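hey so u asked for the seq, here:
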Amino acid sequence: MRLTRVDLEEFRCYRRTTLSVPDAGLRIFGRNASGKTSLLEAVYLMATMRSPRASLEREMINWESAVEYALPPYARVRADVMEEGEAREIEVVLAVDEGRPQGNAVRKRVKLDGRARRALDAVGTLKVVLFAPEDLSLVLGAPSVRRRYLDISISQIDHTYLQALSHYGRVLEQRNSLLKDLARRPRTGDASADEQLAFWDGEIITRGSYLVAARLRYLHEVERRATLEFDALARTDAELGLRYTGTISLPDAAIERVVTGTMGDAQALVSRAFEADLRRGREDELRRGITLVGPHRDDVRFLLGGRELSSYGSRGQQRLAVVATKLAELSEVMALAGERPVLLLDDVLSELDPVHQERLLTALGVAQCQLLITATDRALLDRPSLSRLPLMEARTGELLPVDDVPRRNEE
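ran it, structure tokens below
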């Protein structure tokens, strides 16, 4: 898979920019806030329909956008992609809906090969793996960060997962609304609560069991690969481990069957356990008015030598664990999707010492993926292993080939 062209219009600091992307990729350096990260963000948005860093989609729209025309602010990103010899086109338009509260609501319009599509349908057309300094939150952040990581990673290669995830979110909202309503009512001791919850129980079990089974199977392979990658990077006897911490009661023997059997059998096994847990926890859910069991409350633990990496690992070990996990993600995407994703490295080299910089670049070189790599310090990109990539400089709203960049002392 290769990007061949990226168009940015009113996206962050870019007013209008067109970038041709060579097969090997690009090296991009520049000062902070020069647009390096924004370019990678735009590519990531077209792959996943989400930003890796914006809490509000309004943040991605240039604040001066459409002001001269007295129109609502907007941003447009577009890419040409080559996938196994087939040309694809992805376009995402974000437009502020000024009729909504505070003018922060954004409407998203997506086109795939020139035709309007749901965002859900476009996810995974372009596949990417992103390495960024903020990835340390995978180890140190809240459980929601790790769930989001799993959801985005799996959704790019499993469209059924993405559909189940979308449906699960809607069902969970409806079920919680009903539980809150039931919690406010006086308890009569009859079966009315079970009757009212029966439909939503069935829906949440069906979608949720697929999510949990898919996560367990995916993480099983990622852990196996990450353990090897961490050993190669860190050269330590302490083994990296990734453990799925679920709210559904699944003993180790059941988990083993989930990860080694067929997907259909795995989902059925999780479904039975999920249903039993919902029934056991019915009174507690009715008392608290919220769904207490399911993939929306699960987590992933990072372990080093069997101990919690977040508490007992050094910052260097934590960062290498994240890098190893991302390398494992890359390998799993290639194995399951049968194609090479585009690699996005956002100023990651500055977070590693020279030895680990070279080990990471060597590992990435083996994958032979198209690479977009950025750094604030040009020297970090001036190395033989990256020499095949054309060099560019980012200057607020511009991307300039290095031959066109005036020397600093001549400005």
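Residues 1-127+339-411 form a domain with the Rossmann fold fold (CATH 3.40.50.300). The chain has two domains: 1-127+339-411, 138-338.
lmk if thats what u needed
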